[in-house]
């Protein structure tokens, strides 16, 4: 029954912990045991003190109860000294408890940080296909959920354990003093809590699922509304979006408050049961008529015990309930942290030697079995020192082709060879990617300075300013940067919102230039530029790219002038055109 009450995934947390954390956990458990011993000593001293005092009432304690060696020694102390000793031990015990409290908090928050950071890193190590199928809102939600591991999983478990071990210390002592009444008292508590736990378990599970789903949906809707704020304002859709958010938020808060009530509730029910059973015991002892002096210490010990045990039992139950109420979220975070990395991410890998060609061999690709293939058994070779135009209708598969060439998507069938070497694994792909710079169709900037966006992923103090200036010039950004208050140090806002589409594109181009990779991919990278600016930039690219491989995806024919060869993609096939021939087709004059 107990194993059914405990979530299985607890074992997997320990399995996933870093070695250091495991040792810390062992250390913590040792402190918990020390805690219990201190608790035991506390009880013992208190009991002896009461016995010593009640001896004056004329009780015959020496014969009424067996006296241990330590007990005998202690009973020789004066009541005053014994009281002082009692207070001293109590103080030490409180100190230990404080330390346990601190150590538990430290441990659990560090664990959250371990798992949260690992989940973040694992997200970044998933391939593009995975990211295309995963809502970024869900990713952010999981990262914020990582904190649940501390305050709703590890900390409660540790507090529960502390309470359980402490309770054991107290119970062990009480059993040695008064076997049957202690057993009766403990059983009443245990059974009451077990009954409540079984009753509320389904509700806690439901809340757990509710909170998990609502949490992610809240983040999603926040993100989506912010991202399409223009359309929200224009359509007067604030109410519509608020209502959607309200529903999720209500679910989320309901789930949380319900769980909170279910967690705290038994305390109120059991207070009366606890006191009731204590009164029953008192009546029982007095009716036995063993003499006040003999009964008083036992009753005092039981009273103190009950008063100590009730909160401890409540703590154990509350820990279990809190964990149950958050198990779905916790499992999600654990799963994210455990998700195997699909990609290699070595930054300073030796790039794959690339002198001659990129070859696609029998390459097919479809996004799913039910969709028609974007590439259908394609065979072709791109020469290293060439500029390749890729054209075709929107949705024809240009970006997909390029994603495959860049190793971002894996062909469903066939393979890619670089200088005749077939890429086999993520390490190979990583080494191939070290050759590539890419200007995507929709460039998203980071909220940092223009310079940091251009030298993407380079720390500020390591930016090569001379090279930066060249790249700014190449991307026709000189005049724009000159108008900015802080020049290239000016921040661009979230996603580059403070720049125009064309300015963002040029920052993207400058980023590609800065990386000085031998393969450059421009995916509709100049679509937002006026023709004069575009022509200037394309000229510069043609000038510096003699020994480079440049892929240009474009709709505007003027963009393609510098291409050596043009491929048209459509219905899974690629058709090869000489540039001259392609640009002078009769239908070309229409575009
Ligand atoms: N993640 C995806 N899942 C399913 N289909 C997709 C996905 N991404 C793109 N597609 C489909 O693949 C086709 C090619 O898309 P894409 O390569 O982006 O075209 P292009 O860049 O030529 O406009 C389109 O029909 C598009 O709808
Ligand atoms: Mg595209």
Short description:
This protein has about 600 residues and is α/β, with parallel strands linked by helices. The chain has helices at about 1-5, 10-15, 20-55, 60-65, 70-75, 80-125, 130, 135-145, 150-175, 180-225, 230-235, 240-290, 290-340, 400-405, 425-435, 450-455, 465-475, 480-485, 500-515, 530-545, 580-585; strands at about 355-365, 375-385, 385-390, 415-420, 420, 435-440, 520-525, 550-555, 565-570, 575-580.
Could you explain how this protein is built, in words?
This is Multidrug resistance-associated protein. It is a single chain. The chain has 591 residues and is of the alpha/beta class. The chain has two domains: 337 residues, Up-down Bundle (ABC transporter transmembrane region fold), CATH 1.20.1560; 234 residues, P-loop containing nucleotide triphosphate hydrolases (Rossmann fold, 3-Layer(aba) Sandwich), CATH 3.40.50. The protein contains 21 helices and ten strands. The strands form two sheets. The protein has a six-stranded mixed beta sheet with strand order 6-7-8-3-9-10, with helices on both faces. A hairpin with a 2-residue loop joins strand 4 and strand 5. The protein starts with a helix and ends in an 8-residue tail after the last helix. The model has no long low-confidence stretch (mean pLDDT 87). The structure holds adenosine-5'-diphosphate and magnesium ion. The site of magnesium ion (MG) has 4 residues, from helix 14.
